Amino acid sequence: RGLGVGGTTNLGCVDLFELGELCIHRRLFICHHIHLSSSSGIGRFMPVLIMAAQALTSSGTAHLGLAGRGCWTCKDRRVRCDRKLPTCHNCARTQQQCQGYGVRLSWPKGNNPKRAVVCVPVATRHNTRSHRNLHFVHISCLDMALYGYLSDLPQSVEISRTRVQPKDLVRPVSTVWQASPHGAEESELFRYFNDIASASLGIFGPGLASIPDWLMATALSHNSPPYQAAQYGLLAVSSLHRYGLQRQAAQYKIAAIRALSESTTKTDLTFSEASLLVATCMLLCSFEIHIISETTGSWLIYLCGAGKIVKTMNLESYSERGEPVTADLLAWVHYHGILAEFSIFHWRHGVIESLYGKEFGLDKPLVLPCDKLRRVRQLHFSTAHPSHAILCLLAEACYSLYEYQELVLTSDEYYSKLSDLRRRTETMHVSSLPKDGSSTDESLDLTETTSLLQLAILIFMHRITEGPLQRDPDGLAAWQDRAFTIIRCIDTCRHLFPLFIVGIEAQTDERKADFLNLIKRTEERTNVRNLGTFQETIVGIWNQEDLSADESWGISYTHKISGVISSSKFLPSLA
C-alpha cells in the first residue's frame, strides 16, 4: 500500500486505489495528491509517478466497468453518457443504437465552413469521359497553332475575303531536283507520253482518252510556232513524269513558253492553232501541278492563259458546231478553272489577283478563267456525257456558296437552290458505258470516279448548309458509306477533289487507313503527281477534328477547310 522512492527520499503512504479514483472521477492531476518531501531529488522521479498513475487509471476504469469516454451516439445527441460497458445504458434506455466507444472517422457536414474539400457534382464536370475512351493524337506544333487560330474565329458561315492567314501557319516546302537523264531521245519521250504520262494531265471525262491522241496527231503534223509549243509541252510533261524535276524537263518547259509567246503575236490563228495553244497552256499547267509542292503556284498563270485564249478565239462556238475534241478540251479547262476558284476561295493570303501580279510582274490584273458571277449555263460544252453534267453541278454548288457568302443570294434563295441541286445530283445516273457497249478499264475507272464525285458534291452541299439540308443525317451517313465503299474497291483515283471532300469525312481509324492506302496506291501505280502535300492537308483536317472532339462546339466546316488549305505556301490545285 505504500511506495518508497530511493533511499533518502520518502513518500508518505498513498492509497493506490484511491489515487486511481481521484484520477478518474475528479480528473485531477496526480501530483496534487502526492505529499512530496522537502528533498530536492524528487523532481527527477516525476515521470515515473505519472506513468504509474496512467496505468492505475486504466486498471481502475476497467475495474469499475466504465469506458474512458462517452459513446458516439450520446455525443451526437449532445447528452451525458454513463460510459457503461459493453454498451451505454442511456442508449439502451432510449432505444438508441449505441455506436460504441471506439475510434471512428468523422467527416464534416456539407454546410460546415471548416470543410476543406467540396466535391464537384458529376453533372457540372467539364469532361466525364472515361480514360479508356481517350486516345493519342499524332499532331505537330503547326496543327496546335492552327487549331488555336481557327478556334478564335467567329463560327458564322460568312468568311471575309480580305482576311489573311498568318505566315507562321504555313507549312515549309522542299525542293527536289533530280540528275539529268543520259540522252533520252525525243521519240522515246513522245511514246512515253502517249502510253503513260498522259494520265497525269488531270483531264476529267472522256477527254482522258481522246485529248492525248489528238495532241500527238496534231502537234506533230506541222512545225510552226503553235505546233512547236505543243511539241515542247508534251516533251516537258513526259520528261518530268519519267525522270522527275531535272534540267531536261526545265529546258523543254522554257522552249514551250517561248514558242507559246511567239504564237500569241499572230493575228490570224486558225482553229487548230488556237486549240493547240490552249492545250499547251494546260500542259504547262499540268507540269506545275505535278511539282506543286516544290515550286511556286504558277499553274494558275497558265490556266488563266488558256481561259483567255478560249474567250478571245471564241472556241465555245466551235463546240456548239460539233467540232471534234473541242468539248473535251473545254471541259479540261473548265474543270481546272472551277477547282481553282474553290482553292482561291479558301486560300487566305490576300487578294489573288494582286498577289500574282506582284509575284510574276504582270502588266495587267490576273483574269481568272471562270468568273464566279457568271452563270454556269454559259459554259458552252456538251452535258450529254455524265462526267460533263456532274461538272456543271459541281460548278453550281461552288458558285452558290460564293454568291451566298458575298450576299448576292439571300438565305431562302440559297437553300432553295441547294435543295434543287441536291435533287438533280441524286437523280443523275452515272453508270453509263461507251455507246458501242464495250467495257474497258478506262470506262470503269471513269464511272467509279464520276460516282465518287457525285457523292462528294452531295456531302459538300450538306456540309456548307446550316439550314434545312442538315436535318437529314441519315442521308449523309448513306453517302459516306457508299463513298468509302468505292474508296476500298478502286485501285487508284487520279482526281483529288472527290478524295478531298470524302477524305475529310473519315472519322474512324479504319476509314482513315482505307483512304491513306488509296493515296499510296495512286502514287505508286500512276505517278500522277507528288501527293505528299495533299495527304498532309487531309491529315491536318483530321487533326483539327481530334483537337475539337471534346469541345461542345465545333470549328466551322468552311473555316476548317480554309485554315488547312491556307497552311500551304502556294495555291494548291485539287484537279
From TrEMBL:
Which source organism does the UniProt entry give? Answer: Bionectria ochroleuca
Pfam short name (any one): Zn_clus
CDD domains assigned to the protein according to its UniProt record, in alphabetical order: GAL4
Main location per UniProt? Answer: nucleus
The family database entries (PANTHER family) matched by this protein are listed as: TRANSCRIPTION FACTOR DOMAIN-CONTAINING PROTEIN, TRANSCRIPTIONAL ACTIVATOR PROTEIN UGA3
Q: Which residues form the Zn(2)-C6 fungal-type domain?
A: 70-98
PROSITE patterns in UniProt = ZN2_CY6_FUNGAL_1, ZN2_CY6_FUNGAL_2
Taxonomically, which superkingdom? Eukaryota
The identity of this protein, by name, is Zn(2)-C6 fungal-type domain-containing protein
